[in-house]
UniProtKB/TrEMBL annotation:
Signal peptide: none annotated. This is Circularly permuted type 2 ATP-grasp protein. InterPro entries: ATP-dep_Glu-Cys_Ligase-2, CP_ATPgrasp_2, UCP005522. Transmembrane segments: none annotated. It comes from the Bacteria. It holds the Pfam family CP_ATPgrasp_2. Coiled coil: none annotated. Residues 68-444 form the Circularly permuted ATP-grasp type domain.
Length: 468
């Protein structure tokens, strides 16, 4: 049985009361016209995502659902406290494992999960970034299973994407349905770019004397998230640069401009660690800046999020985040993890192998809905093939129960129907922790599907937090 966020029995829940009449009084032809208008706006603005390896044009229009997802203020405040708690613990973990490793010494997390992790960067061991912040934008994926039951599905501590959809979903809804916003008290999200810019400026290195110069470093226009890179640069009023736009000189980083070199203090990087600096990581990288890591380690520039932050969002390390909260903060977790079996443990392995048809199994380093098995939806052949993969490398997998993800009302061809959703809020970490009241709601548009990723047929919708 799935929790329906709109209905409690036959009664419409308070958050959706004002939308019920809106839906009931909207003629089908009006809905179709508005849906076409939304798609035209997305296409005109250029909001696409890329799917590689399937042939043809990889750029696709992300499906947009006009029916917003709604939270009461009290629900959001509870989520906000839990998200901030988790972001604090994750940053404390990163500071620790790149220095003394006290949590490992205390036996709270296995050393091999950290020090043998592909995302652990030895190049930054012993270095503490400005304000001790490693992960500056933490995207935490949350699922709901009941009225008051929220669980964290995974943490994203490197470069979580999707904030452009959060902002554009709101912009398009306000443009198409202004009366909804006039008649309801909906918390704004449009301050996100300014908060992000302030957050990045707050972690400028001590060597920065004047107003910090912030840039966004992109791999270029072929990247699947390039739209978001250029979108955020424009809204923040900062330069969008590629690796060959920057250079290192005398222990500092400079940007090439028509007026001559300009010093750069903070780099919001949207490229992966291995490509940041060919002198430190992959020698064949054409995307990074030679010598960047030397400047970073000497305190000449800040990089957000810090190289090595990815060790905190590994799906195996995820299972220990509640323990991080207890160890570093002395608190009990406000948001619980999804129950998880780790297949390198003998008892967990035996249980999972005996119950594959009932579980969701994920690659430890997988993303985008790939590299996973949804047991109840899989054929016997698919389960058998996945069992072989697990036997070959059990350390590479975790397993979780098939969650009863909540449903949110969604416009479909027949009218309005429940579809499964998740939520990605974005916590900004600098001299303070801040969230805008909302996030990216992803929706599984296929009936019965539990996979919300856009690359797997999912869409997006606006997320409303109602004011008191």
């Amino acid at each position: 049985m799935f929790y329906n966020e709109m209905f409690e029995g036959s009664e419409v829940r308070a958050p959706y009361a004002m939308l019920s009449d809106w839906v009931d009084t909207m003629p089908a032809d009006m809905r179709q016209m508005k849906q076409a208008e939304a798609e035209a706006l997305f296409r005109r603005i250029g909001i696409t995502f890329a799917v590689y390896g399937e042939g043809g044009d990889p750029d696709r229009l992300i499906p947009f659902d006009m029916m917003p997802r709604v939270f009461l203020q009290g629900e959001w405040r509870r989520l906000e406290r839990g998200i901030k708690q988790r972001a604090r613990a994750l940053n404390a973990f990163l500071r620790d494992v790149y220095s003394r490793g006290e949590i490992i010494r205390a036996g709270r997390i296995p050393a091999r999960l950290v020090y043998q992790n592909a995302a652990y960067e030895k190049a930054v061991v012993g270095f503490v970034p400005p304000r001790g912040v490693f992960s500056h934008i933490v995207g935490i994926d949350i699922v709901r299973t009941g009225r008051d039951d929220f669980h964290v599905l995974e943490d994203n501590c490197r470069t979580p994407s999707g904030v452009s959809y959060m902002l554009e979903n709101r912009e398009i809804m306000m443009r198409m349905f202004p009366a909804l916003f006039r008649n309801n008290r909906i918390e704004p999200v449009d301050q996100y770019p300014e908060i992000l810019r302030r957050t990045l400026a707050s972690v400028a290195p001590a060597k920065c004397a004047d107003e910090p110069t912030v840039v966004i470093l992109t791999p270029g226009h072929f990247n699947s998230a390039y739209y978001e890179h250029s979108f955020l640069a424009n809204l923040m009023g900062v330069e969008l640069v590629e690796g060959n736009d920057l250079f290192v000189d005398a222990g500092l980083v400079y940007m090439r401009t028509t007026e001559g070199p300009k010093r750069v203090d903070v780099i919001y990087r949207r490229i992966d660690d291995p490509f940041l600096d060919p002198l430190c990581f992959r020698k064949d990288s054409m995307l990074g800046v030679p010598g960047l890591m030397d400047v970073y380690r000497s305190g000449g520039v800040a990089i957000a999020s810090a190289p090595g932050a990815g060790v905190a969002d590994d799906k195996a390390v995820y299972t220990y985040v509640p323990e991080m909260i207890r160890f570093y903060l002395g608190e009990e977790p406000l948001l619980q993890n999804v129950p998880t079996w780790t297949l390198w443990k003998e008892d967990d392995y035996k249980y999972v192998m005996a119950n594959l048809a009932d579980l969701v199994v994920k690659e430890v380093h997988g993303s985008g809905g790939y590299g996973m098995l949804i047991g109840p939806k899989a054929s016997k052949d698919e389960i058998a093939r996945f069992a072989d993969l697990i036997r070959a490398n059990p350390d590479n997998y975790i397993a979780q129960p098939t969650l009863a993800l909540s449903t949110s009302p969604t416009f479909v061809a027949e009218g309005v129907a429940p579809r499964h959703v998740d939520l990605r809020p974005f916590c900004l970490c600098g001299d303070r922790l801040e969230l805008v009241p909302g996030g990216l709601t992803r929706v599984a548009l296929r009936e019965g599907s539990l996979v919300v990723n856009s690359s797997q047929g999912g869409g997006v919708k606006d997320t409303w937090v109602l004011s008191e």
